Amino acid sequence: LEMRMLLSRDKPEIDFENAQAVLNEMNMDVEPLRYTKHIKKNAKVFFDLAQWDKFISKVDYSIGTRFHGNLIALTNGVPATIISHDSRTTEMAELMRIPHVPVGKVRRLDVHHLAQVGDYDGFQRNYTVLYDRFAQFLLENGISHRLEQHSAIGAPSRLYNLVSGLRLHFGKY
After folding, report:
1. Which residues lie below 8 Å from residue 13, measured CB to CB, with a gap of 6+?
2. pTM for this prediction
């Protein structure tokens, strides 16, 4: 899970409360000490997009509650599913056509099933349209940027190869 992205400097106790609420919805038990140990051991923090891209491109699948973490995965050709925990996340996932499931419907986390049911065709088509529309908006308003026009996802063939591999590996449900 992408709980590590919930961390903040302001009130660490809220981090645990947020994580606990999501995990409770999924019937996963977590104790404060165990959660803290897990985060200290496994958390990754990136201050540079290139480093984040390099890291995420080596994983097979991304699942979590954080929209941008999963978007980074998808733009690097890594299949992803968002566990939507609020209306903003749900609306963004729907706009981008990113596979998502409401946290309330995830009683037992079945990653195999979530990986299988993800439909990435809509995301692939929609992302390119939205990307180009945004780049055009910046251009028309004289805002400098580094976006290329007509840019598709960084690694679409890798995304489809990985999804096929996941379905093959996990079998039919």
Report:
1. none
2. 0.67
What confidence tier does 166 reach under pLDDT thresholds 50, 70, 90?
very low
82 is written with which tokens?
A: 């968002």
Q: Are 56 and 73 in contact (CB under 8 A)?
A: yes
Look at phi and psi of residue 163 and say left if phi exceeds 0, alpha if psi is from -120 to 50, else beta. alpha
pLDDT digits (tens, 9 = 90+) for 103-122: 877 766 677 777 777 888 88
Q: How far apart are CA 111 and CA 173, in angstroms?
A: 12
At residue 150 the predicted structure's pLDDT band, cuts being 50, 70 and 90, is low
Look at residue 136 and give its three-state secondary structure: helix
pLDDT band of residue 162 (cuts 50, 70, 90) is: very low
Report the SS3 class of residue 100: strand
Q: Where are the domains of the chain?
A: 1-45, 47-170
Contacts of 164 (CB under 8 A, 6+ apart): none
